């Protein structure tokens, strides 16, 4: 199916707000992209984006016990990644110092994504999203996936 086809595909996952959930989100995304035959640089960039957004959600100041939600949508030549958490604290794009251990996540999101933003989450919290463009060549042909 060409990347610009009108078909919309969505996958959603819920995770506890714990550090290991970032790895699970990345692994689930990787498997989903293989099923959708999205490969190459877009797949790699999508893994980086979901890692950074999920890390921010896990680290967000929110009520204990709340989950994070990752939703991935493939439609109209784009891949949209959304990560929702229960924190009302908005993400801030900032420059990390040379020796800072964190603070580079949104800089990576800004560099890799076609566009990104934040909006309200249904109920409480926020959704941070990022969009990647899908060139036609990004979708692997069925023959390329066979061993």
TrEMBL record:
Q: Which Pfam families match?
A: HATPase_c_2
Q: Where is the Histidine kinase/HSP90-like ATPase domain?
A: 19-130
What is the originating organism of this protein? Answer: Streptomyces niveiscabiei
GO MF term set: ATP binding
State whether keyword Glycosyltransferase applies.
no
Repeat as UniProt keyword: no
For this UniProt record, the keywords arranged alphabetically read as follows: ATP-binding, Kinase, Nucleotide-binding, Serine/threonine-protein kinase, Transferase
> Which protein, by its recorded name, is this?
ATP-binding protein
CDD domains according to UniProt: HATPase_RsbW-like
